[in-house]
Amino acid sequence: MAIMSVYAPDGRPRRHAWDPTIAKERSQVLKMVATVTALATIVIFTLQALYFGAYFRQEENAYRLTVRIIDMDSQYASTVAGAPTAILGPAVVQAAQQDAAASPGYHLGWQYASADELQMFRVTQDGQGQNASEYARQIVLNQDVFGVILISSNATALATEAALTGNTAYDPRGAIALYYEEARNFYAANQYVTFHSTRIIEAAIAQASEQLASILLGSGGGTAALTTAANGNALSYPFYFSQFNLVPFDQLGAEPALTAGQIYLIIFTFFSSPIWKKAFEPLRRKLTMSSMLFLNWIVPVILYFWVSLMYSFVTLAFRVDMTRMYGRGGFPLYWALNWLSMTALGLIMETMLRIAGPLFFPFFLIFWVIWNVSVAFLDLSAQDPFYMYGFTTPVWNAIDAGKSILLGTKNHLTQDFLVNLSWVVVGSVLLITTCWYQRRQEDKRELQEKKQEHKGEKAQQ
After folding, report:
1. In terms of Cα–Cα distance, which of 241, 208, 192, 237 is closest to 93?
2. What is the 3 state secondary structure string of the chain?
3. Short-list 60, 256, 241, 270, CA closest to 152
4. Model-level pTM greater than 0.85?
5. Distances (CA, A) of 440 to 282, 427, 443
6. With pLDDT > 90 as the criterion, what percentage of the chain qualifies?
7. Distances in Å between the alpha carbon of 237 and those of 7, 83, 156, 161, 209?
8. Structural domains in the chain, sorted by start
9. What is the mean pLDDT of the segment spanning 261-271?
10. Which range in 105-114, 279-288, 392-401 is most confidently predicted, on average pLDDT?
11. In the predicted model, is pLDDT for residue 2 greater than 50?
12. Around 250, how many Cα atoms within 13 Å sit in the side-chain half-sphere?
């Protein structure tokens, strides 16, 4: 039986893995494997914990999702002569107060309109005050609060009148209006703001309806109230509410671009870096310092320009309307946002690829992705204060600006673009400085090698 050769084609011997003659090389390999394993362990228990922590205390932080309760019902009852005592307004306020007291840390941030705020809506000698519905819409769209519960100024009076007179035109849904903005953050809006708001509204309606029925049936006209209520159903169904989603998250094609698509944006940004760096290497040493630095900077920026256009076209191809907020300028603006965001992310990665090298760069890439993504999808108000750093990250600002362009939320474009432009400046400085320093070090090593060769030649002579 033939024995397999243990020699390489060039005649050099090949060893078994545990051959004592390669103990040094084997030790180096095992040390490198141990180092990488240790780093992976550290990454799992730090960076993965960073991402998990972003979701960990959402319920406890729900109090930071503020909802303003504007009780116009009580104000009407206290200022209009002959108006019945307010029932619905106080019931909503009481339900919110009981909710906060019964579940500390697990409730929304209930706010109550102040006397000065309520005064703005009063009818005075100068005419009608500010429209309460428009005011509620304004503070939600301006993102001063996450929602508004507006109790109509004559909610109790209208329900009482309908029950006593049999007003069949009475619509109980006009008693309370809930305003919110889903597109601001659909996780926060759907899981917390609307869920908890409707919960206390329904509790208040049940209490107020029972109280109104008790008052009417206990009065001298109880039998008449039952008779007329049968026509309008106003006694058994005196109060209800309407919901107004001022900016819905209604473009499902935009969801990838505003959520997981940002992870792909980082991947696409990095995709060309190793290829470009390897392709540029033979030319790099032959260029002047200024040419080398300029190409190291401009080529990635140009690549991001093209890749961001392709990324933006994919979003457009799935019929995402980009004209809602900024008209025909929506698509160029969206493209500019993606280009700026890719440049902000990419120049930092280009720098770290040169500093960490191909072996350790993946650890930085994991950090860069998790650090950005941990704060990108949830509303920062629902996260621990530590995660407020999200306001400074490229991805958070890209998503915030993207919501304005694609869905029509509040315009923070100046802030979003300036933050990412700052990252571009920082990344540019770091990349150019790193390339300059490494080139200088290479020149010094070459000079030293030439000196050593010159000394060797002299010694031989």
Report:
1. 208
2. CCCCCCECCCCCECCCCCCHHHHHHHHHHHHHHHHHHHHHHHHHHHHHHHHHHHHHCCCHHHHHCEEEEEEHHHHHHHHCCCCCCCCHHHHHHHHHHHHHHHCCCCCCEEEECCHHHHHCCCCECCECCCCHHHHHHHHHHCCCCCEEEEECCCHHHHHHHHHHHCCCCCCHHHCEEEEECHHHCHHHHHHHHHHHHHHHHHHHHHHHHHHHHHHHHHCCCHHHHHHHHHHHCCCCCCCCEEEEECCCCCCHHHHHHHCCHHHHHHHHHHHCHHHHHHHHHHHHCCCCHHHHHHHHHHHHHHHHHHHHHHHHHHHHHCCCCCCCCCHHHHHHHHHHHHHHHHHHHHHHHHHHHHHHHHHHHHHHHHHHHHHHHCCCCCCHHHCCHHHHHHHHCHHHHHHHHHHHHHCCCCCCHHHHHHHHHHHHHHHHHHHHHHHHHHHHHHHHHHHHHHHHHHHHHHHHC
3. 241
4. yes
5. 17, 20, 5
6. 53
7. 93, 20, 12, 13, 7
8. 60-118+129-245 (3.40.1710), 252-447 (no CATH)
9. 87
10. 392-401
11. no
12. 9
Taking the alpha carbons of 307, 311, 314, 320 in that order, is the dihedral positive or negative?
A: negative
Question: Distance (Å, rounded) from C-alpha 449 to C-alpha 461?
Answer: 18
d(CA 424, CA 22): 48
Answer yes or no: are the C-beta atoms of 145 and 139 closer than 8 Å.
yes
For the segment 412-438, the average pLDDT, to the nearest whole number, is: 96
pLDDT(116) > 90? no
CB 388 within 8 A of CB 380: yes
pLDDT tens, 285-313?
Answer: 788 999 999 999 999 999 999 999 999 99
Other beta carbons less than 10 A from residue 354's beta carbon: 18
Tokens of 450: 């030439």
